[in-house]
UniProtKB/TrEMBL annotation:
GO terms for cellular component: membrane. This is Acyltransferase. GO terms for biological process: polysaccharide biosynthetic process. The chain crosses the membrane at residues 9-29, 49-72, 92-110, 116-134, 146-167, 187-204, 216-234, 303-321. It comes from Mucilaginibacter phyllosphaerae. It comes from the Bacteria. GO terms for molecular function: acyltransferase activity, transferring groups other than amino-acyl groups. Keywords: Acyltransferase, Membrane, Transferase, Transmembrane, Transmembrane helix. Residues 11-318 form the Acyltransferase domain.
Length: 340
């Protein structure tokens, strides 16, 4: 049997990225429809409002982003990195140039971008340590297990107040957020999620087929549990820092299933194209939303307009900033490093 050649890219990944970025964006928009429905005296309408209020869980989407990142970083480097500085230049510049610009812009508005930039600091640290992880001569499954245990111990000690809040169902010192350790330590919590993506990359070339029914079941399951995690964070004192690394195990299976599925199926072309600027949408939307609220009244009538204008502005940011950053990284690598 002829050995299957590694793919250069996997269709469907960009579609997932756009949907995840959209979920994060919607989680940061004030959901005027949910507020209106929850104020109804009719129980079915009120229930619909509660559901809608928890339908877009941004933290679940960020954890899924971590898994995808681990996958796309590891897949082309499974056999090793020929030139580590070249790898770092390409990865760091793509993230850092847009990130620095948004942080500078955010200083004028009270740094609304901090709701998303914590995850990018995690990404930069993962890129920094990945070459070292690649050289450790134990299986990636063992590395994942060690990282998961390390994160669990770190959470149990550092986020003890959230553990206590869940056990005793109290608001006392309850934080609730996944990124409560800040920009420089949250990577420890998220590392096992990122390594789940590496595990996907390790086995994605193995012959396998997935049917549509299985994909749909995974999608429904992931959506339902993400809604529950959002609800539980606010009403059951179940902090994201306690729930997300467990939920990541299902997200891992879902993303793996999606990638395998689209090896034999055609993704939606529009979503694939929009996925190209998912990073810009993820990074820009807090500032764009704030700016739009200064010039447009935000209500049920203008809510769709806010969504459309935010996506459009993010696309312009991609054209003006993110895509040139990609080209600069490639240009520097071509000029100063031997091609890998």
């Amino acid at each position: 049997m002829q050995q299957q050649r590694p793919q250069k890219w996997f269709y469907g990944v960009d579609s997932i990225r756009f949907i995840l970025a959209l979920v994060v964006m919607l989680s940061h928009f004030d959901n005027v429809y949910a507020v209106a429905l929850k104020s109804s005296a009719l129980l079915p309408v009120k229930t619909a409002g509660v559901f809608l209020a928890n339908a877009f869980d941004g933290t679940s989407a960020v954890v899924a982003f971590f898994i995808i990142s681990g996958f796309v970083i590891h897949y082309p480097s499974k056999k090793g990195i020929a030139n580590v500085p070249q790898f770092w230049v390409r990865r760091f510049l793509r993230i850092l140039i847009p990130l620095v610009i948004i942080i500078i812009a955010g200083a004028w508005f009270g740094h609304p971008e901090q709701t998303v930039t914590w995850s990018l600091f995690c990404e930069l640290i993962y890129y920094a340590i990945y070459p070292a992880l690649l050289k450790i001569r134990i299986s990636w499954k063992t590395k994942f297990t060690a990282a998961w245990v390390m994160a669990a111990v770190f959470i149990a000690i550092g986020a003890y107040s959230d553990v206590r809040a869940f056990i005793h169902q109290t608001n006392t010192n309850y934080h609730g957020y996944y990124w409560q350790f800040g920009n420089y330590l949250t990577w420890i919590v998220g590392l096992p999620c990122w390594l789940l993506g590496v595990l996907i990359a390790e086995h994605i070339d193995e012959p396998r087929l997935v049917n549509t029914r299985t994909v749909i079941l995974y999608r429904l399951g992931v959506f339902a549990i993400s809604c529950f995690c959002c609800f539980a964070k606010f009403h059951l004192h179940l902090s994201y820092i306690l729930s997300m690394n467990v939920f990541a195990l299902l997200l891992y299976k879902w993303i793996q299933t999606e990638i395998v599925y689209y090896k034999s199926q055609q993704p939606i072309s529009g979503l694939e194209k929009m996925g190209k600027f998912s990073y810009s949408l993820y990074l820009c939307h807090p500032i764009i939303f704030l700016l739009l609220k200064r010039v447009i009244i935000f209500n049920g009538f203008t809510y769709p307009l806010f969504i459309g204008l935010t996506i459009l502005a993010a696309y312009l940011f991609y054209l003006l900033i993110e895509r040139p950053a990609h080209r600069l990284a490639r240009s520097i690598n071509r000029r100063y490093f031997t091609a890998a």
